[in-house]
Structure formats: C-alpha cells, structure tokens
Write a structure and sequence with these properties.
Elements: H1 6-16, H2 27-33, E1 37-38, H3 44-50, H4 58-66, E2 70-74, E3 80-84, H5 85-107, H6 116-127, H7 135-142, H8 151-162, E4 165-167, E5 182-184, H9 185-189, H10 203-216, H11 221-228, H12 233-240, E6 245-248, E7 254-257, E8 273-275, H13 280-283, E9 305-309, E10 312-320, E11 323-328, H14 334-351, E12 358-361
Parallel strand pairs: 11-12
Antiparallel strand pairs: 1-3, 2-3, 4-5, 6-7, 8-9, 9-10, 10-11
Helix pairs in contact: 5-8, 6-7, 7-8, 10-12
Length: 365
C-alpha cells in the first residue's frame, strides 16, 4: 500500500481546501465544497473565504445569509458552522444524537431526570409563534416547568440539540455586531429537515464521508470523526469501500480517499495563506501533523489566527487599527518574510476596504 508522507498529505489538503490556489467558484459552491466553515466567531468565515476564493466579495456572503441560502447553525462537533441551507436540512437529523450527547457530556448532572422529548416539545411550542429568541429567553420561558437545571443547561440543550435552530442575521453579516437570535431551521428555510432513512441504512453518513474526503482527504477514520463528531460512520465507510482507494501514512494508519481527488506532487509550491480562528483545515483532523507541528497544536484550539508558510502553520496574526501584525513561530527566511508581508498587506486592504495596507512582522514568538 502506498505510503503518503506529511508533505504529500499537506499538498493534498491544501488542494482540497482551495488553499493551494484560490478558486474561481461562486461563494455558495465554495461553502458547499468545504462542508461548511466553523463560525462561532461571526467574522472569521470572511477571512477563510478570502483566502480561498479569487476576488472574494464579503457582501456576497452576507447576501447569501440574508437570502437564506446559507445558515449559521450548530452542527459538526456541536460548534456553530456556516453551511449551505441544503446541507443543513440534509445533515441535521444525522447529527441529532451526537448533539444531545455532547450537551449531556457537559450538563448531565443538571439535566438528570429531565425528559428530553418533553423538553423538545415544549421548546418547539414556545418557538411556534415565529418570534426570534435568545437562548436565555427560551430557557426562561420554560424555567417554571423545569426550575432545577437552570437556564444555561436548559438553553444549551434546546438551542444546540433538541430544536434545530438557525442564528438570524444580522448575526454573521460583514462588519456587523449582533447578538444571537434563534428561530427554528425549518421555519426559516420553509422546508422540513430530511428524516433519517427508515430502513436503517445510512445514506447521509455515506454522503458525509464522501464530502469529507473531497475536502479533507486522504484521511483516516479517526480524522473523519474528529471533524464531524458523528458515531456509526465505520458502517458507512464499509458500505463505500469498493469506491474508495486506500493509502498509509508514516504512522501506518490507513487513509481513505476518493479515487479521482487531487493529490498534487509533494514538491508543488504552496503560497502564503492567512487563516481565521478555528479554521477546519486544522481542526478537521485527529492527526494534525500534516499542517501544524505538535509543539504548536494548542494554537488550533485556542482561537489563534495563523499564517501558513510552505503549507504549514508558521506564525500567528492579529489586526488592530488597520494594521495586520504577524508574529512568527520561528525566524522567517528572507523570501518567506517578503511573501508574508505581501499577503499581509492584501489582507489589511481587504479588512479595511482599501483604507490601509499596513503590516508589521514582529520578532519570533
């Protein structure tokens, strides 16, 4: 079985993630191809798409949100993701059990004795009036009936798991600050969520496997689960075996992939790219060694915005008063420093509507 080293996996990942070369595709298609973008920080997907889509216009993404073609909702790993409306409806039921279990993993003691089906029905009844509500407002509406858990556990279980919700614009619009107001997903989109297959088959799970490999492969089953958090996917993988190809990584793990997906030459040059906080190109793997060194792995879960140099995490970045500040993790080579500065100037211009192209590169951290 062919062994793919970390550099080969890196270049395959960059190609699938539209980071080896910016893509000439509509924004909606990019969101769909990526399987969504992690979006608990509302402005971060704009940077993620700017780094991936040629001539990206942030107003287009805002229009997709207000036009209900993309939504902000709890999905993979119980985190807020920006996904297409079609994917939200198709995937949500398959994520239900995982979402419940993850909330219970945090609030099992507080929610002990609460009938979750009764709570879900009560939550849907409150939201049936069509009024957007914050998590706290929904929880308080039910607190008299369930006083013991407290508003936070009740609200988390309702909003993140029991009642499929979307976060309404203006939350998530370009350069807009707004609190979270929720409405049911089906009422916002005017369509019901796709039910699970009644025959016990898992077509959604199989579709998720294919979509993951298209955007993240080659990857191990553990990587797939790290991205979505779903259980039961080994059966979906087994059902797809005949249409997949397999490799090994340097640790000996089996890697799955789609036969015709791009696997560029490991020597392919990789441009500098600025990534937003919590980008799935890093979080979407159990073994993140293809893109970030173990010594810096903590950055990927701490909300640091990172810079890729030669395809790997090499710096963090921030922006204040129109200036993009880059802090290398190690000393840059001269050519890399120049490339980082040029891309940092372009990012500063994007974030400031061409009002500033200031970039500052500090001493290494």
């Amino acid at each position: 079985m062919t062994v793919l080293d970390n550099r080969a996996l890196n270049r395959a990942t960059l190609a699938r993630q539209l980071l080896l070369e910016r893509a000439d595709v509509p924004v909606l298609d990019a969101v769909a191809h990526l399987g969504g973008l992690q979006a608990q920080e509302p402005q971060e997907p704009f940077v993620g798409l700017w780094s991936r889509v040629r001539a990206f216009d942030p107003a287009v993404l805002s229009d997709l949100l207000t036009g209900r073609s993309v939504v902000r909702t709890h999905l993979m790993r119980r985190t807020v993701h920006l996904v297409t409306a079609d994917d939200a409806l198709a995937w949500r039921a398959r994520h239900d059990a995982m979402l419940r279990q993850r909330v219970l993993g945090t609030y099992r003691r507080e929610l002990d004795g609460v009938d979750l089906e009764e709570l879900a029905a009560a939550g849907r009844a409150v939201m049936a009036d069509g009024e957007p509500r914050s998590m706290t407002e929904l929880a308080r509406a039910l607190a008299e009936r369930w006083p013991a858990p407290g508003p936070r556990p009740l609200g988390e279980m309702l909003i993140a798991a029991l009642v499929p919700m979307v976060q309404l614009p203006p939350r998530g619009l370009w350069r807009t600050r707004a609190g979270v107001r929720n409405v049911p997903l089906s009422s916002w989109l005017g369509r019901e969520i796709d039910p699970l297959s009644p025959d016990g088959a898992d077509p959604v799970g199989q579709a998720v496997v294919r979509r993951y490999l298209a955007a993240f492969g080659p990857a191990a089953s553990a990587d797939l689960r790290a991205w979505c958090g779903l259980s039961g996917l080994p059966a979906a993988v087994t059902a797809l075996r005949e249409e997949l190809v397999t490799f090994r990584d340097e640790r000996g793990r089996e890697l799955l992939d789609l036969p015709d997906a791009p696997r560029p030459d490991p020597g392919t040059p990789a441009p500098v790219r600025f990534l937003p906080a919590f980008d799935n190109v890093i979080l979407g793997y159990h073994d993140r060694g293809r893109i970030i060194d173990d010594a810096h792995r903590g950055l990927s879960v701490a909300g640091a915005r990172v810079v890729l140099v030669d395809g790997r995490v090499a710096a963090t970045w921030s922006v204040e008063a129109g200036t993009v500040t880059v802090t290398p993790l190690d000393r840059f080579a001269r050519a890399d420093r120049t490339a980082v500065a040029e891309q940092g100037q372009a990012l500063a211009s994007f974030l400031s509507d061409d009002d500033s192209d200031r970039v500052r590169i500090t001493a290494s951290d």
